[in-house]
Specification:
The chain is built from six helices and two strands. It has 155 residues and is mainly alpha-helical. A hairpin with a 2-residue loop joins strand 1 and strand 2.
């Protein structure tokens, strides 16, 4: 018939015949490409520019919390150590900066001085016992530490 012709001994038709494996694979790939394009078009992209420590990753984390149902339990557990280290680094930096801006630890009250000595002598490997948090709390309430924090732009 006029709508059928032979190519290398095989009959080819316009609307019938089993699809070859190549045709099936091609259709599957085209479908995946179409789905990928649709996903790409519906994705919102945001370019965050800024110097180091300017808060770019913080924005991403906040967006995740607000729009993607927060963190998984595993992610939360992973963040606990990071938070502990940040608390230690922050209070240690404030303590170390006191003498830089003319605030002497010797002028602190006895409880704050004991907390200061504890914090400034923490080893690199540390388990964060309750005593650590008690000392951080004591220091944070000390007026010398508060003044040092308020003057952080000087160090």
């Amino acid at each position: 018939a006029w709508y059928q012709r032979r190519v290398r001994g095989k009959a080819m038709g316009c609307f019938w015949g089993p699809k070859s494996e190549e045709d099936k694979r091609n259709a599957r790939i085209n479908k995946e490409i179409k789905q990928s394009k649709q996903t790409f078009k519906s994705t919102h992209r945001l370019l965050l520019l800024g110097g180091g420590e300017s808060g770019k990753s913080t924005i991403v984390k906040q967006m995740k919390i607000l729009h993607i149902n927060g963190f998984t339990e595993e992610e939360k557990r992973e963040k606990v150590l990071t938070i502990k280290i940040n608390v230690r680094d922050a209070i240690s930096s404030i303590c170390m900066a006191m003498s830089t801006i003319g605030l002497e630890p010797e002028n602190m009250c006895r409880g704050s001085k004991l907390a200061y000595d504890y914090i400034t002598n923490i080893p690199a490997e540390f388990d964060y016992p309750q005593e650590f948090y008690d000392h951080v709390s004591t220091l944070w309430q000390d007026p010398h530490i508060q003044e040092c924090y308020d003057r952080s732009h000087e160090y």
